[in-house]
Amino acid sequence: MVQQKLDSLFRREGDRLNNANRKNLKGPARALYLGGFVKLERANSLVDSGIGLARMRVKKGIENESKK
CA-CA distance, 56 to 31, in Å (whole number)? Predict the structure, then answer.
């Protein structure tokens, strides 16, 4: 049973990567989709509208560089 759940998890992650590559998702759209926040069909439209950017977190390295 545990083995089946692990197999399912790795299969799901692999499928998400394949789908993101097939649709040529880049940047925030790719991050939102791979993070499981949005569905594949809506990833680009959310980022283009600006709504999806509210779900993104700023990395601490970028935040520290902007303060300097």
Answer: 8
**pLDDT digits over 15-47, tens only?**
999 999 999 999 888 988 998 888 898 888 888
Fill in the amino acid letter for 2.
Answer: V
Structural domain boundaries of the chain?
A: 2-67
pTM: 0.67
Q: Kindly report the length of the chain.
A: 68
Count the Cβ atoms, other than its own, within 10 Å of residue 28. 16
Look-up of token digits 């880049």: 26
Token pair for 43: 């990833």
